[in-house]
Amino acid sequence: MEKVYDLGRMTRQEALADAQGEAEQKAISAGALPSTVEVVELEEIPLTYLPSSAIRVRVKAVGDLV
After folding, report:
1. Which pLDDT belongs to residue 50?
2. Average pLDDT, the chain
3. Distance (Å, rounded) from C-alpha 16 to C-alpha 65?
4. Which residues partner with 54 through β-bridges?
5. Residue 12 buriedness (CB in 10 A; 0-12 / 13-18 / 19+)
6. What angle do CA 4, 45, 60 make, to 5 degrees?
7. Would you report the helix, strand and coil content of the chain in percent, each value rounded to 5?
8. Measuring CA to CA, how many Å separate 58 from each of 34, 65, 66?
9. How confident is the model at residue 51, as a pLDDT?
10. Using CB atoms within 10 A of its CB, is residue 56 exposed (0-12), middle (13-18) or buried (19+)?
11. Which of 60, 63, 52 is nearest to 30 (CA)?
């Protein structure tokens, strides 16, 4: 899951939590058991070329299949 967040509208922690939650939901939707889903990769890249503060977050969540 990859998404860009505007830090003028939310905090960094809120953006990271949102990205992790979305990645976990996508893993569950793809057939992973909810109790086994975990985030295995989290990458945060500041986007310095934009006029406002923004970050691109890449998250990978995995779990055992049903």
Report:
1. 83
2. 96
3. 25
4. 6
5. middle
6. 75
7. 30, 40, 30
8. 20, 22, 25
9. 80
10. middle
11. 63
Say what the pTM is: 0.90
Supply angle C-alpha 2, 32, 38, rounded to 5. Answer: 60
Mean pLDDT within 23-41? 97
pLDDT bucket at 66, cuts 50 / 70 / 90 = confident
Tell me which residue of 10, 34, 9 sits closest to 24, measured CA to CA.
Answer: 34
> Domain-by-domain residue ranges, the chain?
2-62
What is the reported pLDDT for 63? 97
Tokens 């990458």 sit on residue: 43
Q: What are the Cα distances from residue 40, in Å, to 17, 32, 51, 52?
A: 14, 14, 31, 29
